Amino acid sequence: MSAHSNSPESIDSSLAVAAEDHALASVPMGDRKSGFQLSLSPVSVATALVIFAIGGFTVVLAGFTVGMIAGILVAVFGVFLGRSLGRMAFNTGMSSTITSRFFGFGLKGSSIGSIIFTFMILGFLAMESALLYEGTLLMFGLDDTWPVRILLYGLMTLLWIGLAIFGLKLALRATGVLTLITILVAVFMVIQIYAVQGANPMDVFTYQGVVPGGAWPKFEAAIGVMGATAGTIALVTTDFARYCRTNRDVSILAVAGPVTQNIIMTVLGALIVIGGMPKVIDYLMARNAGMSPQAAAEAASLFVMQNTGAFFVVFAGWIGFITIYAAQAKAQAINAYSGSLSLVNLVDSLTGWKPGRAVMVVVGNFIALLMIAGGILGQFAAYLAYLGCMTLGMCGVMIADYYIIRHGRYDAATHKVEKWNWAGVVTLVVSAAVGIILMATGIFALGFLVSFVLAIGLYPLLRSRMPEGTATSFVAEAEALAEAH
């Protein structure tokens, strides 16, 4: 997300320049900000509908106590990742995928990281749109038909494209207000559930979850849903860290997203989903004549992951409906923006062509529509798990390269960038594949953690056997930075 200064003199009147936003260049110090200002960006992403769904679903599976323990642990892990990767982006002044050219993958090798990041961020763009679509159907009582799909998804896509290209500064200015409104509406829903309707909050705090067995199966389920997103928020945070002024600002930024996502949203998600389930069941039975309590209960349970906006519609009506759209607008602008950065790096690293970011915003939104058509919302849990193997494998390689191989040092004047860092490429492929196989075969449900640990351990070993320049060549600094002259 853009993090330029908000002063009038800093806003370029040229739409073309505004749209590019240092997509392929290091951010100059004059355009950098404090960590507190920048932290609004990951917080806005962490308060989106999909994160609300993850928090609520985690507690549904594992119970409140185990879910919160998992949330705290994942938050700590996320802060570590965000701080580690953010320091790299702070030093280079570039986005996460451009930074991966310098640490771990090389100019052309970074295209693999771009594919992963694109798959990640555009997947969230698609899931958020799908959740909004389902909430809109419920609000207006619409049927899921092709004309309705074309109309609603078409309008949303045009909105995301416009915001990501020309409305990013507006979205940044509105982020704090919209995030506050989202949280206030969530608090209003909690008051409605427990103070007005008389639900007992202890039913939430003592909720044991639907996963059978003892504490470990529940903990494994909670980490399985929540832990896979640690790499996601870390890479998104890295895109914002390039705008930090100091290392202290990086630390502030790195804390904001994971704490909001894994702790605050887990509490709110649990209180609303668990306590609000009876009301949602009654709502469905009232709107669907002849629906049995059992069928309504099954439909309501699906809403936790596939129609999270329903809870806002049921408890807050038009206010809730407008809120989820306003909240998603800022998050979707960031998703579309970050996805376009990754696509720009992908095309540039492979072909040398430097496409405009505006073009890649359109391409990214089209890819998101294809994901929706492929049923990404119905494969939500599996998507997150496999995504975690890829993102954490990528994070592991970059961290190992910067902190183990280079001892946390970066000098732009002497740093050499390879076209292909084969040690990094091989490590990422192997570590991600191992994690995915472990989960797909049922051997270990937390394969994404194995991917991370394996990447950190394997990369230094391969790098010692394949030092800089092995089976590749180096590129000039200007080419590595991909600055448009």
TrEMBL record:
<feature type="transmembrane region" description="Helical">
    <location>
        <begin position="383"/>
        <end position="405"/>
    </location>
</feature>
<feature type="transmembrane region" description="Helical">
    <location>
        <begin position="48"/>
        <end position="81"/>
    </location>
</feature>
<keyword id="KW-0812">Transmembrane</keyword>
<feature type="transmembrane region" description="Helical">
    <location>
        <begin position="309"/>
        <end position="327"/>
    </location>
</feature>
<feature type="transmembrane region" description="Helical">
    <location>
        <begin position="146"/>
        <end position="168"/>
    </location>
</feature>
<keyword id="KW-1133">Transmembrane helix</keyword>
<feature type="transmembrane region" description="Helical">
    <location>
        <begin position="358"/>
        <end position="377"/>
    </location>
</feature>
<feature type="transmembrane region" description="Helical">
    <location>
        <begin position="175"/>
        <end position="195"/>
    </location>
</feature>
<comment type="similarity">
    <text>Belongs to the purine-cytosine permease (2.A.39) family.</text>
</comment>
<dbReference type="InterPro" id="IPR030191">
    <property type="entry name" value="CodB"/>
</dbReference>
<dbReference type="InterPro" id="IPR001248">
    <property type="entry name" value="Pur-cyt_permease"/>
</dbReference>
<feature type="transmembrane region" description="Helical">
    <location>
        <begin position="215"/>
        <end position="238"/>
    </location>
</feature>
<keyword id="KW-0472">Membrane</keyword>
<feature type="transmembrane region" description="Helical">
    <location>
        <begin position="250"/>
        <end position="274"/>
    </location>
</feature>
<protein>
    <submittedName>
        <fullName>Cytosine permease</fullName>
    </submittedName>
</protein>
<dbReference type="Pfam" id="PF02133">
    <property type="entry name" value="Transp_cyt_pur"/>
</dbReference>
<feature type="transmembrane region" description="Helical">
    <location>
        <begin position="443"/>
        <end position="462"/>
    </location>
</feature>
<feature type="transmembrane region" description="Helical">
    <location>
        <begin position="102"/>
        <end position="126"/>
    </location>
</feature>
<feature type="transmembrane region" description="Helical">
    <location>
        <begin position="417"/>
        <end position="437"/>
    </location>
</feature>
